[in-house]
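Bumping with the actual sequence this time:
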Amino acid sequence: MSIRARLKALSLPQLFKLARLFLKNPEYAFLTARASKKALQIATTHYGDKHHKSNPANAFRHALWTVLLGQAVYQKTGSLKEAQNWAKQFTDLHEQLFVNRKADRTMDLHNNSFGIQALRLFAAKPQEEAVAFLREAAKNAVQIRNAKDAEAYPNKLIYLSK
């Protein structure tokens, strides 16, 4: 689903939550849109439409998304803490606004967190290095059966189904 389509799907209260976040950080609006679009494009390049399922390709996309969001903010601010903070704020809000089943939401939040941690390694490095690292992490992702299983794999990408 395109960014425009996702925005159209939001209710008025949801749009206000999103607007409030960007009013606090207006300089991040364009960076966020560009990083989000790029994450979708890269995921599609490497996995086709598979990244729209609850699989390793989706885990890759979520982790990459947070890395790209963080890299964009890091390039602007030079602050790893600010980059990680923005990536967490925005991706957490996204998961709050676009509600999934509990297990899917847990999976997405977990994989976003993995990307935020990976940002420590890749904030100032070329995007291609992060992509290669995350593709390898996706190959080694762990399948979980339910939301509670995610806790056992803090340093791995996780997925629900192939």
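The tokens above came from a reply further down the thread. The CA atoms of residues 72 and 157 lie 22 Å apart.
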